[in-house]
Amino acid sequence: MTTLDRAQLAPLIDHTLLKPEATRADVDALAREAEQLGTYSICVSPSMLPVETTVKVATVCGFPSGQHAPAIKAAEAADSVAKGADEVDMVLNVGLARSGDFAAVEAEIRAVRDAAPTPVVLKVIIESAALEDEQIVGVCEAAERAGADFVKTSTGFHPAGGASEHAVQLMRATVGDRLGVKASGGIRTREAAEAMVAAGASRLGLSSSKAILDGGTGTGY
Fold it and tell me: What tens digit of pLDDT does each residue of 156-214 get?
């Protein structure tokens, strides 16, 4: 198990608020808390952009189902970047992955990459809990070919579940040190967060960041 102190763990966190009932006041409070905690970023819904904060701003596209046309995902990403997003976490069309159509997976990721070019950081949410191991490998390879910067385990909203150490290990083994790996979904304790880092995660999506950094147990995403 990797043991990280607070100063080591906080900069790995995307402090996240993606609840559909979130208000502007909630997002502003999230930003202030992220600044106090020293997290890497906040991650919020695209409708909440722009956000004034000293940390990086991440958002989502095609969230949470991924069942959006590639052109819609691309347009959503471009709009978010125009409104100040530093990072975009796009949801994969999981059905394409489950059917083995990795060419189509690559094409939709590339469409979003083209709409949100570097230096915007592009993360691809693969819903690892809904995929077999060979499908996880296939989508990670497609994401790398399409120019993504990260692969990410989960939205946190899929009934199949969130991040697992096994999925993170497999994703890291597939992308090596060429891409980042973000673990998200169901990480609610300091121990779980550290386990994901030990498995190979270079970023963590957490909604209970303060509780986890304090060594307690969080709720939600």
Answer: 999 999 999 999 999 999 999 999 999 999 999 999 999 999 999 999 999 999 999 99
- The pLDDT-based confidence of 217 (bands split at 50, 70, 90) is confident
Q: Which domains does the chain possess?
A: 6-213 (3.20.20.70)
Predicted TM-score of the model (pTM): 0.96
Question: Does the active-site annotation cover 152?
Answer: yes
Is the pLDDT reported for residue 1 higher than 60? no
Tokens of 20: 């559909």
Q: Which of 73, 89, 123, 149 is catalytic?
A: 89
* CA 161/CA 187 separation, integer angstroms: 11
- Return d(Cα 220, Cα 98) in angstroms, integer: 27
Q: State the pLDDT at residue 3.
A: 82
Q: Catalytic: which of 14, 73, 149, 152?
A: 152
182 annotated active-site = yes
Q: Alpha helices of the chain — where are they, by DSSP H?
A: 6-9, 24-37, 70-82, 94-98, 102-115, 133-145, 165-175, 190-199, 209-213
- 89 assigned to active site: yes
The size of the chain, in residues, is 221
CA–CA gap between residue 145 and residue 147 (Å, rounded): 6
Q: Contact 205/182 with Cβ under 8 angstroms?
A: yes
The confidence band for 220, taking pLDDT boundaries of 50, 70 and 90, is low
Which residue among the candidates 14, 73, 149, 182 is catalytic per the annotation? 182
Q: Are 108 and 70 in contact (CB under 8 A)?
A: yes
